[in-house]
């Protein structure tokens, strides 16, 4: 059997095993794509920063209120009620008001829609690039990996920035409303957990929003992508 016949009879599974894109190279390509589309990446990350910042602000503000409720006076509890917190006088547990919870949900939904829209536009702009990559042998899993890596980079950067911004805003607001007790009575372990929760929520949100556009890009036939009229 000639080498040509051997290649012709190679099974699809064997061909897939022969095509390898190292993870480090995938990260490099994803980072280069983000830099090449810096303005669109900043818009996507910016919407994530705003949503996560508000979530972090509410969570940390609730932590501040919890510290005040556990160690504060009756006057402090009245101040918390006036600030819109739901305080359990028996256990000292504090929850954000219903209005804040609805605003969080709506802001996260708007952020998700914005990211999906931005990623779909990114896929449309990259039809030819995706087609060339697939013609050169890129597998669907490689295309999917590149889009997910871009989402992870945007998600980590945007979520971390939003969590820190929300923390700063919550502490500033607590100092303005309750004085230095907002910091001295603050349970920092709960604050750290809130920051992790806000950052994780933003990252999950970014990945969930990019999943559908990434699948569309990965399943795109090479010929159709190359013929796209942009």
Automatic annotation (TrEMBL):
Membrane-related topology note: Multi-pass membrane protein
Domain ABC3 transporter permease C-terminal, residue spans: 103-222
Cellular localization per UniProt: Cell membrane
Keyword Secreted in annotation: no
Transmembrane segments: 38-60, 102-123, 144-171, 191-217
Record keywords: Cell membrane, Membrane, Transmembrane, Transmembrane helix
GO cellular component: plasma membrane
Superkingdom of the organism of origin: Bacteria
InterPro entries per the UniProt record, alphabetical: ABC3_permease_C, Macrolide_Exporter_MacB
GO molecular function, one term: transmembrane transporter activity
Repeat listed as a keyword: no
Family recorded in the similarity comment: Belongs to the ABC-4 integral membrane protein family.
PANTHER family linked: ABC TRANSPORTER PERMEASE YTRF (PTHR30572:SF4), MEMBRANE COMPONENT OF TRANSPORTER-RELATED (PTHR30572)
Protein name, per record: ABC3 transporter permease C-terminal domain-containing protein
Gene source species: Oleidesulfovibrio alaskensis (strain ATCC BAA-1058 / DSM 17464 / G20) (Desulfovibrio alaskensis)
């Amino acid at each position: 059997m000639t080498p040509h016949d051997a290649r012709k009879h190679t099974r699809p599974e064997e061909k897939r095993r022969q095509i390898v894109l190292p993870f480090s190279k995938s990260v490099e390509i994803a980072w280069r794509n983000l830099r090449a589309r810096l303005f669109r990446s900043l818009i996507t990350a910016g919407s994530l920063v705003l949503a996560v910042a508000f979530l972090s602000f509410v969570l940390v503000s609730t932590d501040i209120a919890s510290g005040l409720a556990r160690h504060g006076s009756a006057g402090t509890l009245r101040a918390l009620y006036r600030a819109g917190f739901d305080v359990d006088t028996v256990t000292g547990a504090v929850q954000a008001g219903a209005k804040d919870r609805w605003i969080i949900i709506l802001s996260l939904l708007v952020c998700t829609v914005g990211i999906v829209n931005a990623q779909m536009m990114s896929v449309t702009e990259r039809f030819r690039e995706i087609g060339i990559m697939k013609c050169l042998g890129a597998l669907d899993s490689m295309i999917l990996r590149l889009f997910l890596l871009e989402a992870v980079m945007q998600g980590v950067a945007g979520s971390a920035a939003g969590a820190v911004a929300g923390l700063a805003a919550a502490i500033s607001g607590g100092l303005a409303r309750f004085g230095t007790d907002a910091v001295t009575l603050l349970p920092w372990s709960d604050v750290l957990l809130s920051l992790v929760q806000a950052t994780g929520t933003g990252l999950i949100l970014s990945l969930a929003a990019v999943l559908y556009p990434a699948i569309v890009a990965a399943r795109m036939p090479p010929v159709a992508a190359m013929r796209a009229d942009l």
